[in-house]
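Write out a sequence, fold above all:
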Amino acid sequence: MNHPLLIETDTLQSRLGAPGLVVIDVRGRAAYEFGGHIPGAVHSTWHEYSDPNAVPKGLLNPDLAQIERRLGALGVGNETEVVIYSNPFDNWGDEGRMFWMLEYLGHKNVRILDGGWVKWTAEKRPFEHGPASPAVATFNAQPVKTLTISKDDLKMIVRAPHDQTVVLDARSLEEYLGKEISGIPRPGHIPSAIHVAWNGFLNKDATIKDLDVIKEMLEDKGIQSDQELICYCTGGVRSAWLYFILKLAGYQKIRNYPGSWWEWSRDFACPVEKDFRGLQKILGLDQAARPS
């Protein structure tokens, strides 16, 4: 797909080693070091930027100086061109999380590799093993606060009429309806939230579906271009991928809730809705409960 927020595999290969370009591999460390990675790519995951003192894992580290140093050590400066990739079929939308975080921190030149590692290897493009040694850069964070939302602000929104603000749940349908998840105090979803599964936007080759298809999928959910959209999941990772998809599709007013369900479900003052009948139906339990 030709889009300013995406880069194709052939274009990236032709630009490897170019001054001012940093490629970030957001897969697991073992996959990066031992399974091979794009030549020159550095490794970093969203966990490295989380608040070390918070129970909800998705909250960003409030010490921006630590984040700046970590990004600088990867070679990321404010003017650096950044390309992010992963294995789109073997993660939780991690490349979207890195994209959203960099945009939130004020970086203005970030793209995602369409098809990621899946397409790169299918096309037998070059790779290497072991860690990279980037030149250290200086990154100065300039947070764009309109790209995120806090628990308390979201709580105020859902407690009042909010026709022009739509909450989007990027988790699985089972989680949305109320499936019990280990480590999560309360199952269910934020009241009024629309379910938009994060993993429904890829083709079989791991590339992103055509924008017309994506827009139709979103419009079928009643999502309109003039609305403010707030995305959440469990820890702000899948929802950040949805944030990226919405940006691709041309939506302008989008926020990611990094605390997401890890944080929301722990605050019993936050309202929760469940649909156990719907959950039983999709799990086939309603049929099992009926007498033969």
Residues 94-104 form the longest helix (11 residues). The longest strand covers residues 21-25. The chain is about 30% helix and 10% strand.
